[in-house]
């Protein structure tokens, strides 16, 4: 068990009589590594299982069937896709779900005409799993609730008002399911078998559930070294995102993480990325603002969300993927193994 990434009984930590040492552990983790694991979190086992089992069956389908679940317009954050490493070996398989199925659903939920354009590229729902949309909604709502409660816990350990962090009711979210393949290529160091490059999420908080037979998810310590995030079936992982770091003027460290290969079975993780509403501009809150001036520039949630695809493709997109996006057609990467 990692000493850097504590397992926190969330109900106990939120209780009025929470032990001081438990709250101190939460604060230390939030300030130094930006990752905690929470148990007794209130998400029913059947909610997680209903979502995870459905997507396991989808991702176990033959590739020819999964290719039909790719975004018909080439959107990298809708439906199914795979990506290979530089040798053509499969690194990661992902299924992405937007908060709203399309612009009509977004407008019905109260989004402005401008903000609803974020959903012009529709979600892709597998016809093989007719109950998956409802299972995803239950999973999403439960994980957003966990994020709200952890945010309240962080306010408590930082000795600021419970509602100090203005997440609001109209949160902006995305959901992803990641499948990391078995990795038969032996003899490589962690740095040589990275399946997901190191990064910090651009959310306020990210709530994740992981399953597999090895701790491939790793968090970065303040000294730059890496520590595994142990797999516990009863636990959820909560990562501090860069928006929460901005709100706290750097007081809470973003949870930098990566995924390395290993194990004998496919590893799966599913995450809900939680942001404030699209019309929010995130800047250090008065409780944390430095009177001598801030090192953090204001961040428009809308500008970041609306430019996300172009920025991703500019940095990581392969020529054939860019061509598919520009031509508004599906894209499925070729993999050799």
Rg, please?
20 Å
CATH architectural designation: Sandwich
**Can you give the mean pLDDT?**
93
CATH classification, class level: Mainly Beta
| Number of distinct beta strands | 14
Give the H and E element order.
EHHEHHEEHHHEEEEEEHEEEEHHH
Structural class given helices, strands, pairing?
alpha+beta
Proportion of beta-strand residues: 15-25%
CATH-defined topology? Jelly Rolls
Tell the overall outline.
globular
Helix content: 25-40%
Distance between the termini: 33 Å
How would a textbook summarize the main sheet? 8 strands, mixed
CATH homologous superfamily grouping: B-lactam Antibiotic, Isopenicillin N Synthase, Chain
Q: How do the strands line up in the largest sheet?
A: 1-2-10-7-12-5-4-3
Explain what the structure shows.
- With about 325 residues, this protein is of the alpha+beta class.
- The protein has a single domain (about 5-320), classed as B-lactam Antibiotic, Isopenicillin N Synthase, Chain (Jelly Rolls).
- Helix content is about 30%, strand content about 20%.
- It has eleven helices and 14 strands.
- The strands form three sheets. Strands 1-2-10-7-12-5-4-3 form an eight-stranded mixed β-sheet. It has a four-stranded antiparallel β-sheet with strand order 6-11-8-9, with no helix packed on it. Strands 13-14 form a two-stranded antiparallel ribbon.
- Helix 3 (about 45-60) packs across helix 7.
- It is globular.
